[in-house]
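Reopening this ticket.

The earlier resolution said the output was attached, but the attachment link was broken on my side. Pasting everything inline this time so it's all in one place.
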Amino acid sequence: MPDPLVLPRSPRRRGAVARSDTWWGRAFVRSFEELALDAADLVTARSLARSGRFGAIVVLEAMASAVLDPASEQPLMTQLKVERLDAAGWTTFAREAARESGFTAALEVGSLPVDLVEHADEAGVELLPGASDLDSACECDGWAQPCVHALALLYLLAWHVDRDPYVLLLLRGRTREHLLAEVHELAAGTLSPGAAERDEARRRAAQVLALAQDSPTGHGLADAAVAAYDEAVARLL
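Inline output:
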């Protein structure tokens, strides 16, 4: 199983996580701001995201989590789940990326060409998640989701997505290494039919075994870890 991506907490300063400079960062923000039931929740969430009260963000394939006030007596875990693109969808995206050397070069340096995403969209693959692709859970037990804590986590993620689009791709279920390997194989013509699907099946089987060997136990915040573990296994099967 790939190691989780651990993102440091964002800088604690005014405006640090409230803006996005890239088109993909802005698109990600639009996708989750549509979920807020009250505009005031967005204001509160942005303030919370800038407060420095969240610990590091842990990102797995199609999942992310962070703890609010981790050093306090009552830490609070918030989780995000993102609909994963399947192997066929990723192969289609990789094929579009392999068609033009400029797309491949951009991906290698950590950029996400808008033309590439548009071509993939025309081919039936929507890389950017829509509001329906996002789900959240929080230990605050708020009746409405996403709560302000989940929205704050999303703003923090947007700050990292803006600086590295591979955070977004990981949230959609693909690591940088896996995607670039498939792009290069397609560009070189060495990827055999069905190879991506077979590799995906082997990868998922290995992840299930790895998860089984390291399943969480305990109480309190560990309950959230158990829930995340169960969800991860369910997604892989």
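Reporter confirms the inline version is readable. The first strand starts at residue 5 and ends at 7. The first helix runs from residue 23 to 33.
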